[in-house]
């Protein structure tokens, strides 16, 4: 919704000859820095509409911050999430989601099975006893897929060793 609102403001201004630089933050800073010149190019109704859209963006940002604070509080209360948070490349959202998925760890027979549920094991194929490993499969939990790129950085991190050692 934030991107759509930003694009709406960008489109409204473009209709009146105001071209903003690319990127959300840069574009919004340009509006603030050049507001007087922008208002000269816009009818008064459009200026009010831009003000409303900018207020909507502030409200969205405030809501996102509140939700992120609530998730961070949940992360502080979960032992496994705190341990996962220490791993480089795993943020608050990723640590909380992984801790919720992992649970007590007894639902999986091995670390490989857990990794497979996340879509982190190589796809393999083969016949006649000769298997070939391929790229990481795109199967697994789509909610956790956003963190998939950063997890390889975390491999072998001591916090993960402690986490897996605690689970039978």
Keywords:
168 residues; two-stranded antiparallel sheet; disordered C terminus
Could you please describe the fold and organization of this structure?
The protein is mainly alpha-helical and 168 residues long. It has two domains: 2-68; 78-166, no CATH class. The protein has nine helices and two strands; from the N terminus they run H-H-H-H-H-H-H-E-E-H-H. It has helices spanning 2-15, 24-33, 35-41, 44-77, 79-85, 92-102, 111-118, 151-154, 158-166; strands at 122-127, 130-136. It has a two-stranded antiparallel sheet with strand order 1-2. A hairpin with a 2-residue loop joins strand 1 and strand 2. Helix 4 (44-77) crosses helix 6 (92-102) and helix 5 (79-85) packs across helix 6. 12% of the residues are buried. Mean pLDDT is 78; it is low at 149-153 and 164-168.
Give a brief description:
The protein is mostly helical.
| C-alpha Rg (nearest Å) | 23 Å
How many domains, in number, for the residues? Answer: 2
Q: Percent range for helical residues?
A: 55-70%
Task: Outline the low-pLDDT stretches.
Answer: 149-153, 164-168
The whole-number mean of residue pLDDT values reads 78
Biggest beta sheet attributes: 2 strands, antiparallel
The CA-CA distance between the termini, in Å, is 43 Å
Strand content: 5-15%
The total count of helices amounts to: 9
Secondary structure: number of strands? 2
Bulk shape? elongated
Q: Would you tell me the structural class of the helices and strands?
A: mainly alpha
Succession of helices and strands: HHHHHHHEEHH
As an assembly, this protein is single chain
In which order are the strands of the major sheet placed? 1-2
């Amino acid at each position: 919704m934030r991107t759509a609102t930003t694009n709406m403001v960008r489109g409204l201004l473009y209709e009146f000859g105001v071209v903003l630089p690319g990127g959300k933050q840069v574009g919004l800073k340009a509006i603030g820095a050049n507001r007087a010149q922008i208002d000269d190019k816009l009818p008064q109704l459009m200026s009010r509409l831009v003000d409303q859209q900018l207020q909507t963006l502030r409200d969205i940002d405030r809501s996102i911050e509140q939700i992120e604070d609530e998730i961070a509080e949940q992360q502080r209360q979960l032992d496994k999430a705190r341990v996962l948070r220490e791993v480089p490349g795993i943020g608050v959202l990723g640590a909380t989601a992984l801790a919720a998925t992992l649970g007590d760890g007894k639902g999986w027979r091995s670390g490989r099975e857990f990794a497979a549920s996340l879509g982190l094991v190589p796809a393999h194929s083969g016949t006649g006893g000769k298997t070939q490993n391929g790229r990481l499969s795109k199967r697994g939990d789509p909610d956790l897929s956003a963190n998939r790129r950063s997890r390889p950085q975390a491999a072998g991190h001591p916090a993960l060793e402690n986490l897996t050692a605690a689970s039978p």
